[in-house]
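DM from R.C. (forwarded with permission)

"hey, sorry to bug you on a friday — could you get me a structure for this? deadline for the figure draft is monday and I only need the backbone to look sensible"
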Amino acid sequence: MSYQREAHKSKKLNTISMDILCYRGTNKKPEWIDAEPECFPSLCTVVANLSNVTRTPYQGPQGTYYIQVYDVVLMCGQAELKAQIRWKKNGKEMRSPASIIYDDLLESSAR
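My reply, with the result:
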């Protein structure tokens, strides 16, 4: 699934911080988060630098704005989860690393 962001200032598209949710309920085929929101806690947060990801300028009624399209790629290994950012540049697939911060680390650093 691709993500699309837009902003009037190009620099606002330089970084992301995105929660990855998991399902911890009893339904064998959960479909909608709003049916059981308490069963979808955040597993981790993906943080990435998007300064190299293509942004396309457009003209709108309020002036120039920029659109950026990318994918968050999660790779499941034997012992750990890894993340990357993927986008197209001149028809070629590009990738860059992303960091994963597990929520237990976020909670302990907020104390």
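R.C.: lifesaver. The chain has one helix and seven strands.
me: no worries. The mean pLDDT is 91.
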